[in-house]
Design brief:
This protein is mainly alpha-helical. 48% of the residues lie in helices and 3% in strands. It is built from 10 helices and 3 strands. α6 crosses α8 and α8 crosses α9.
Length: 263
């Protein structure tokens, strides 16, 4: 993990998107990660058409990761208004206007790309925006995950209370509350150093991967517990002893498969 987030491997576009360089081998995999131009397009639509609370790319990235981590499907109609920043989202407008159709396709593709990464066990890499002074703070990134959690906040309680796995949330909470208006909610009294921030960013990425595994493991356990005990059902009446054997050799049942059943 640490080498993926090494400063020497950072790749920043002119808009300050923090993303480790993608290995050449990964470019042939599907679904394809969004290109820098497509991220710019996505950001442009949100800035131009979205509501006053529309997400930026950084929030969107970890918001989608939270939705993917959650084991039950959250429908688009529920999470798109959060991205768009307007609860009165007009579905018909998205169907009619090409620019909004493209926006939906880019959001869907990025979501599928993140889902593929988490499901395959590959390293999850962030999309983080640089500040004006070139620092990758990661606060919006962590807040995006919190917004995703809020869609089903009551279902995250078990993870918070899990002594073994709850620590995955610590770096997310630390960055999300770094500048909280309530000083009591801030994780540190002193400003976060560059070294500590780097560790927190790595911790968030690793935490998301662990949270995904946590929920998938719990989901499998629940499904296994709900499976009925193995039983055998007869879907056709048992043939009589003098009836033709259903296996088709032309013998009577009592002289064929009935021997196994009766003796």
């Amino acid at each position: 993990m640490s080498e993926v987030y090494s400063p020497s491997m950072r790749s920043a576009t002119r808009r300050g998107i923090f993303r480790p360089q993608t290995p050449i081998a990964a470019l042939s995999m599907t679904p394809q990660p969004l290109t820098d131009a497509e991220f710019d397009s996505l950001s442009g639509v949100l800035n131009r058409f979205g509501g006053k609370d529309a997400m930026n790319l950084e929030q969107l990235d970890l918001f989608l990761a939270a939705i993917i981590c959650f084991p039950r499907r959250i429908p688009e109609i529920e999470y798109l208004p959060e991205i768009w920043g307007d609860e009165t989202i007009n579905e018909e407008a998205f169907v009619v206007q090409p620019v909004l159709q493209k926006f939906l396709s880019l959001v869907t593709r990025h979501k599928e790309s993140v889902a593929h990464t988490l499901h395959s066990g590959e390293v999850y890499t962030p999309v983080i925006l640089a500040s004006e002074d070139g620092v990758f703070h990661g606060n919006d990134w962590a807040n995006g995950f919190m917004l995703g959690m809020n869609l089903r906040h009551e279902d995250w309680f078990d993870l918070f209370e899990d002594e073994k796995h709850g620590g995955s949330l610590v770096p997310i909470l630390a960055l999300a509350h770094e500048n909280d208006p309530d000083p009591e909610m801030r994780p540190y009294k002193e400003p976060i150093s560059a070294e500590r921030r780097e560790k927190l960013l790595v911790g968030v990425a690793a935490g998301v991967m662990n949270i995904y595994k946590y929920f998938r493991t719990r989901k499998k356990s629940v499904q296994a517990a709900l499976l009925p005990e193995a039983t055998y059902r007869r879907f056709a009446p048992k043939p009589g002893r003098n009836d033709p054997c259903p296996c088709g050799p032309g013998k009577k049942f009592k002289h064929c498969c009935g021997k196994i059943t009766l003796h």
